[in-house]
Write a structure and sequence with these properties.
With 358 residues, this protein is an alpha/beta fold. The chain folds into 2 domains: 2-156 and 318-352, Quinone Oxidoreductase, Chain A, domain 1 (Alpha-Beta Complex); 165-296, NAD(P)-binding Rossmann-like Domain (Rossmann fold), CATH 3.40.50.720. Helices cover 26% and strands 26% of the residues.
């Protein structure tokens, strides 16, 4: 099989590899589609970060560079290992791509396995990846999805689960007003979850294409360009002077965080969804004097079933967020380069490792 493997900063190669071994408790998946994530771009430009190095194996997976990339993917089951009796060959599936120590409780009642020591992700920390034609995954992390959901849209379940977990962390309620800072993939998908729950959504975004996407897809009620609009003032106007009930920071840009702080109501909740590679110049006085509740969020925890239900029920349509489809050969020039240098022109670019359906 072919796979896109990361050898180090700026070095991704398409390699020929043996098909994975589908051992006991494992599910073999023919990968249909895999999304390119911002984390993949950071690894390419600045890594290794989540990825191990050539000399230091990941403490759980044991993997070293090179590793197969890709953690946002969907596919079709082609084999199941001994002991797997609740998934059948031919089923459509998505993967919750965790690498977590076997001693950690990952049961349905757990709320913190995603915070466990040495946690990492399939497609970053080893164990194959969605940018390979096939992968074998532990049954625990494989989630069946209805055939009524197209496999290209199913590849967005993973980032949608990030949005679902962030919304869950916020405590937002039906009828509340939310401000989302940044209409990239995670911002748009967080907004999709909010709208599905009956929340009024205001978005702040520089890119005209992404603002248009937010409005046309119906995930935002209002979308403003912060270069020409005082977003905080507009939010207060829309809420009778009160301010947003919740806000979601999805950019890791200081001025966006400052805007959210100004736009949120006293005792509102501000959720930081983005990964910050630097320290923030945070206004602690404003947080204290207005009793703002600041919360962090990372990935997801037992979020996939509820996220999948939102898509299967038709409450969320993922089709509008797919703005490009490519094969493995175009991964760097058509995929990475577009998202690094022209990210205002795209939302989610999907890769077909096999080239099927392109």
């Amino acid at each position: 099989m072919r796979a896109a493997r990361y050898y180090g900063r700026g070095d991704i190669r398409i390699d020929e590899l043996p098909d994975p071994d589908v051992g006991p408790g494992m599910v073999g998946i023919d990968v249909a589609w895999c999304g390119i994530c911002g984390t993949d771009l950071h690894e390419y430009l600045e890594g290794p970060i989540f990825c191990p190095t050539h000399d230091t194996p990941h403490p759980i997976s044991g993997a070293t560079l090179p590793i197969t990339l890709g953690h946002e993917f969907s596919g079709v089951v082609y084999d199941v290992g001994a002991g797997v009796d609740d998934i059948a060959v031919g089923q459509h599936v998505v993967v919750e791509p965790y690498i977590i120590d076997d001693n950690v409780d990952t049961g349905p009642e757990s709320t913190d396995y995603h915070l466990s020591k040495n946690m990492n992700f399939i497609g970053l920390g080893g164990r194959g990846g969605g940018l390979g034609e096939k992968i074998a995954v532990q049954r625990r992390w494989v989630h069946p999805i209805a055939v009524s959901v197209p496999l290209d849209q199913a590849a967005l379940i993973e980032p949608l689960s990030v949005g679902y977990h962030a919304v869950d962390r916020s405590g937002v309620k039906t009828g509340d007003v939310a401000l989302v800072g940044g209409a990239g993939p995670i911002g748009l998908l967080t907004a999709a979850v909010l709208r599905a729950l009956g929340v009024t959504v205001v978005m702040s975004e520089l890119s005209p294409l992404r603002r248009q996407k937010a409005l046309e897809s119906g995930v935002a009620d209002h979308a403003f360009d912060p270069r020409t609009t005082d977003v905080a003032a507009e939010v207060r106007r829309l809420t009778g002077g009160k301010g947003a009930d919740v806000a979601f920071e999805c950019t890791s840009v200081q001025i966006v965080l400052d805007t959210l702080m100004d736009a949120i109501r006293p005792r509102g909740v501000l959720v930081v969804v983005s990964i910050w590679g630097k320290r923030s110049d945070f206004d602690m006085h404003k947080l204290v004097m207005r009793e703002i509740d600041l919360r962090g969020t990372i990935a997801y925890v037992n979020s996939h079933p509820a996220t999948i239900e939102l898509v299967e029920s038709g409450k969320i349509d993922l089709a509008p967020f797919i703005t490009g489809k490519i094969g493995l050969e175009g991964l760097v020039e058509e995929g990475f380069d577009t998202l690094i240098h022209r990210n205002e022109t795209a939302v989610k670019i999907l890769v077909s490792p096999s080239g099927k359906d392109l």
